[in-house]
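Input sequence (82 aa), recorded before submission:
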Amino acid sequence: MSERPVVPSGATRVACVVGDPIAHSLSPAIHNAAFGALGLDWIYTAFPTTDGAGAVDAMRVLHISGMSVTMPCKGSGGGGLR
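Predicted structure, token format:
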């Protein structure tokens, strides 16, 4: 089965998962398949980071519509969210 190519536009909404390591995450494939099946102009990607607070700041500045958070960016560690 071939996936449709994702061609972002100026109206495309962005969502992501943050953490480290993150390259193995299935979240982008799962979310992008769902967005495509629903005909939504959304894209989901993974951003490697250990700085959870910085990721939240970036989310606000870049108007990212949604974010999933995994280790080490969640919890009581130094990279936790605020």
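Checked by second reader. The beta strands are 13-19, 42-48, 66-69.
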